[in-house]
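User: Just a sanity check before I run the rest of the batch. Below are the structure tokens for the first item. I only need the designed sequence back.
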């Protein structure tokens, strides 16, 4: 889990000592690593009486090809620039290149945040 908040180091390299520990509203959550598989969603409570829908596993992507968009089946993750291990583990994140029934596509949505996979065809 990434550290959230201000860096403990100053521009000069000096150390900043924290005034307080993290408060409840400053805590983050474990990231949802969306994998390729049968569609499974998880609803998580968010701030302000709202809910987030997270995709735990999914095999459907809305692929845009110019002006038209089609629903396509995700076969596998070909490459993931954020982490090469994600491609091996079939984890879908924003920017991942996935092999679909419509061809190769780059993911433009954040499946762990909004529960769906939107993608654009890559030549």
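Assistant: Here's the designed sequence for the first item:
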């Amino acid at each position: 889990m990434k550290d959230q908040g201000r860096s403990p180091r100053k521009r000069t390299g000096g150390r900043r000592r924290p005034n307080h520990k993290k408060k409840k509203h400053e805590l983050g959550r474990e990231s949802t690593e969306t994998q390729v598989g049968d569609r499974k969603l998880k609803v998580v409570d968010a701030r302000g009486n709202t809910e987030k829908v997270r995709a735990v596993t999914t095999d459907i992507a809305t692929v845009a090809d110019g002006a038209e968009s089609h629903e396509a089946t995700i076969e596998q993750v070909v490459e993931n620039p954020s982490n090469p291990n994600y491609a091996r583990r079939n984890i879908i994140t924003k920017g991942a290149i996935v092999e679909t029934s419509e061809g190769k596509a780059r993911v433009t949505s954040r499946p762990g945040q909004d529960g769906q996979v939107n993608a654009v065809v890559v030549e």
